[in-house]
Amino acid sequence: MAVKEFKAGRNQAGIKKNADRESVEEWFSHESLSFSPAELILALEGMRRDLSGAELPARDRAFWETNSGISAGPEDVGRSSANSIAARVLMDATSHTAAEVAERLGLSQSTIRHYRAERKLYSYLANGRLVFPAWQFTASGKAVPRLEQVLGALPVDLHPQAVAGFFLTPQADLFLHGGPATVKVWLEAGGAAEPVVRMAAALSAGY
């Protein structure tokens, strides 16, 4: 059996299996997911609002078309929002509160708020609450090295998913261990901040 056919058959089986379950809660109980039904509902509500097709401001529309390769028309923007909903749910669900970050770093919540204001840490509002995405922390719980320098070079109003993409997408200019590395991996491995800052500055110049 071809790989494509095998995957299609497996997906159909998965769909039938999930269809046999009586509720979303039952589906969640059988799957290893990092977010709750309530968080999924909030994200879907956000997606529904995005699908309303609100017109983007001229600057954001130009940036979208230049960097995404997708027309910035209301229908295309809405469709793209729908396609990215899973990534946003995962990012929101795995982010940390200010209290959690304070405990992780051994600092006060007041200090964490100062770090946020000074762009030493990155945060955004998710469903009305301030969260700090997990990608900016190492496995040991510390902030990614030289994070402040890079954040300072990025546009201050860049969308949270765009910021995450900048740090988590392999970059051809960051060559490590025989291949392109993500900004996060590069910095954690001791890579210099300068090439990353140049990339961030170039992004800012086009925004």
From TrEMBL:
Keywords of the record: DNA-binding
Sample GO molecular function, one term: DNA binding
Protein name, entry field: DNA-binding protein
Lineage: Bacteria, Bacillati, Actinomycetota, Actinomycetes, Micrococcales
